[in-house]
């Protein structure tokens, strides 16, 4: 392992912050190769980087295959995607209006999230009561 001064470490950290995705992994892997004998755990200890990310960067440099980040698959999905049987459009349709100045062809829905939630609860509660007579009693 090469002795790096605090200024060198700061410069390398700053450069890594300015990169994203595969470019960042490639940079971190090259730094690990050049200064840390290709050891991801030393990169984690020295630069505060995740050793799995550095290991992936080393793998990408060694094989030439770049792993793609699937950012769209992360996070919370929209409610309509999670519950496709949820029908929001018929509830929102009466609240739609055209732009008053007719500048665009888009319709605007004047309904708040709170009132949409209340309408869904009312609709689903009525739907359940009609379909399941045991709930009424």
Explain this structure to me?
With 137 residues, the chain is mainly alpha-helical. The chain folds into 2 domains: 6-63; 79-132, no CATH class. It contains 7 helices and 2 strands. A two-stranded antiparallel sheet has the order 1-2. Helix 2 crosses helix 4 (51-63) and helix 3 crosses helix 4. It is elongated. Residues 128-137 have low confidence and may be disordered.
Physical arrangement of strands within the biggest beta sheet:
1-2
Regarding quaternary structure, how should these chains be classified?
A: single chain
Number of strands: 2
Question: Proportion of β residues?
Answer: under 5%
Question: What is the count of distinct domains?
Answer: 2
Question: What shape does the CA trace take?
Answer: elongated
Which ranges are low-confidence, i.e. pLDDT below 50, for 5 or more consecutive residues? 128-137
Q: List the total number of helices.
A: 7
In short:
This protein is mainly alpha-helical and 137 residues long. It has seven helices and two strands.
Helix and strand layout, with pairings?
Blueprint: H1 6-17, H2 21-35, H3 40-47, H4 51-63, H5 79-82, H6 89-92, E1 96-98, E2 107-109, H7 113-131
Antiparallel strand pairs: 1-2
Helix pairs in contact: 2-4, 3-4
Short descriptors:
137 residues, mainly alpha, 55% helix
